[in-house]
Amino acid sequence: MRKLALFLTIIFLSIPIFSQNSNEAKSLLDEVAKKVEAYENIYIEFNHKFDNIEANVHQETRGSVTLKNDLYHLNYMGTEQIFDGKKIYLIIHEDEEVIIQNSSDNDEETLTPSKMFSFYKQGYTYKMGELKTLKGVKIQYVKLTPIDSNSEIISVLIGIDIKTKHIYNVIETGENQTITTLEIRTFKTNQPISEKLFIFDTAKYRDQKKYIISEPK
Length: 217
Hints:
Elements lengths: L1 H36 L4 E11 L4 E12 L2 E6 L2 E5 L3 E6 L4 E6 L21 E11 L2 E10 L6 E9 L5 E8 L4 E11 L12 H6 L4 E3 L3
Parallel strand pairs: 6-12
Antiparallel strand pairs: 1-2, 1-11, 2-3, 3-4, 4-5, 5-6, 7-8, 8-9, 9-10, 10-11
């Protein structure tokens, strides 16, 4: 009976500790999102890594993205992706092709650059992770676990620079033990940029008759 009472005491004491941990993790993420939302624009250079130990696959690519509110211009793997607030333009230079999509056609669960700092707000539980020092920088990790038990994602670790409250890296573990890492190399804010950066120049690509332009019906 005494052992049962001790067990129950441990269980009920753990509940508020877990809740406090969850609230602390959510508050830290909210602080990061709030700071990001205050910037006029953001320019990011990043490393994107994909690892699957079982299949012996390792890929690493660099890219960059400029964000202004929901608008973005992404350069990645020889392609450009522009979102002007209404449509998404995928410019595949190697294939000389432009694919145009309505933003509403995009899967709501698809992680786009404009959702980079807010995707955590729905569909996850939160937990404070490890505090690490990487390259002399203190990084606090927050662990996100999908609420949907059928999700192909096992967990997402978001590393946050304690000093700047900027995201340092995002590490996603998939159900097949695939690990996708997004590491931010450069983070600049409020840069002088042209509004044309978020506008697709239709005439430019129509004049280059080699480019095939696929538009939504």
